[in-house]
Design goal:
This protein is an all-alpha fold. It has one domain. Helix 2 crosses helix 8, helix 5 runs antiparallel to helix 11 and helix 6 packs antiparallel against helix 12. The chain contains 12 helices and no strands. The radius of gyration is 20 Å and the shape is globular.
């Protein structure tokens, strides 16, 4: 656990956690590069699943978790939940790829700012987890931000809500699954790689695929695999060693980077939209502060309990 980790390991875990979110913050640039090469969202998604699968499976084998993965596949309850989580993460990935290549970077940032707040609300509704006052304020501010955003664009921010709900739902499903993050990821990638490979082969046969269009296209398409699996591995390793309060702060790195990229690329940032983001940022700040306080209180109680033994 993070509280008992050596200082050196904790610092390394913090670096790994920050690193995974930093990579996720830069991923839109890769998808935009592929978009400029003519690769569509469905083709990017299909190749992402195909090339992520061997990377994720290699990590499982290197960790000596091959038997655990096979046992999970052979257990109907686990396989069912992982099939559902595969669908949810595929919806999330496809929505994100389409959005960043359609000039909606700011809306993707909004979605990932909302994600931890959606997860908190889901935890209360599904798992009967208690929401403290800070959590209630954070959710109220986020809801206000979404309402203002809807007024600003004349409709609900569908992209942001789809990203937040699909990833929040993914987290809820994975909480049900009796498989660790690394094994679960490998199985999810393998499940998605089956239709992904079929689609990639069909595109190549029809002369519509870009995998053989040029060496540069092939390199960046194949790179979507490791760029998908590596940050998830860093996240899984860091999450076991870093307090949840710290991860609560780190998770806002990637949407902040995405927000900055959207502004730099000239997306419209009207005063009403700014007010919407101000509400979301305030909710995120309250959420992170609440997580930090809970983590500090938990560590203090652990120290007091250890001293009393």
């Amino acid at each position: 656990m993070a509280a008992s980790s050596a200082p050196g390991e904790t610092r390394l875990a913090l670096a790994a956690g920050a690193g995974c979110y930093f990579i996720w913050g830069l991923v839109p640039l890769l998808f935009q590069l592929l978009g400029r090469m003519g690769v569509g969202p469905w083709e990017i998604l299909a190749n992402r699943t195909v090339w992520a699968a061997p990377t994720a499976i290699a990590f499982v084998l290197l960790a000596g978790q091959g038997r655990q993965a096979l046992a999970a596949i052979r257990t109907p309850a686990i396989a069912k939940w992982l099939a559902l989580s595969s669908v949810l993460i595929a919806v999330n990935w496809l929505t994100f790829i389409w959005a960043v290549n359609s000039g909606r970077m700011l809306e993707t940032a909004l979605g990932y700012y909302l994600t931890p707040l959606i997860s908190m609300a889901a935890g209360a509704l599904i798992f009967r987890e208690r929401i403290d006052r800070a959590g209630a304020i954070a959710i109220a501010l986020a809801a206000t931000g979404v309402a203002i955003q809807a007024l600003a664009i004349g409709r609900l921010p569908v992209v942001a809500l789809t990203l937040a709900i699909s990833f929040g739902g993914y987290g809820v499903v994975r909480k049900h699954v009796a498989a660790d993050a690394q094994t679960g990821l490998a199985i999810e990638c393998a499940v998605l790689a089956v239709p992904g490979l079929a689609y990639v082969l069909w595109l190549q046969h029809a002369g519509l695929g870009h995998l053989t269009a040029s060496p540069a296209a092939a390199f960046w398409i194949v790179a979507t695999g490791p760029i998908t699996a590596v940050p998830l591995l860093l996240f899984a390793w860091a999450a076991r060693r870093v307090p949840l309060s710290a991860m609560g702060f780190l998770q806002f790195i990637s949407p902040t980077m995405t927000f900055g990229l959207g502004i730099l690329q000239g997306e419209a940032f009207t005063p009403v939209r700014a007010l919407s983001f101000a509400c979301i940022w305030s909710g995120a700040a309250v959420f992170a502060l609440g997580a930090w306080r809970r983590g500090r209180a938990g560590r203090r109680l652990a120290v007091e309990a250890a001293a009393a033994e």
